Fold this protein.
Amino acid sequence: SQQGEEDPQALSIQEGENATMNCSYKTSINNLQWYRQNSGRGLVHLILIRSNEREKHSGRLRVTLDTSKKSSSLLITASRAADTASYFCALTHSGNTPLVFGKGTRLSVIA
Amino acid sequence: DTAVSQTPKYLVTQMGNDKSIKCEQNLGHDTMYWYKQDSKKFLKIMFSYNNKELIINETVPNRFSPKSPDKAHLNLHINSLELGDSAVYFCASSQGHREVSQYFGPGTRLLVL
């Protein structure tokens, strides 16, 4: 299994701005998930998008998936200081394979 | 009310010692996992159990032995600890093990001196 590659590695924005993080991968996937990790905490599941879906929303989060480009993006609108965290994409390549995490994007939202 | 809990939260020990980390989930899930997160924040799966049966065993030294006494518990025992074992270990659970979201514990920070 291959992990996704998040881009950028780190992102710093002002409160109220939008934050966009990308995840690219090399082999076909069944689904892609985004997780958030606050400093010193466990990961929290945000959104799961399946390979036959193109876009999903959850509150201020919007995830897109382009299987032809093998990439996904996570958009956080109207960011808040509490959004400061690391964001990971995680891939499932087939039904029984383990979830493979990328190295994450560190987001800093400055008040 | 904690969904996935781990004990201890911090573990500092000497090389060569044997230690255990415990994990419990009260979500009624049938699948549990152990992950290792290194100093560069890279998170890698170690083991996965579904209904107390081992279903995923990634390339992990034999010194690591998971034990699942029931569906709600998955403990991790580590023998002969080495410096390279220093990391944060996360337990997680899910309902089913195919293409589902996972719920993570707060992590156990292990430091081997």
Chain A is about 0% helix and 55% strand.
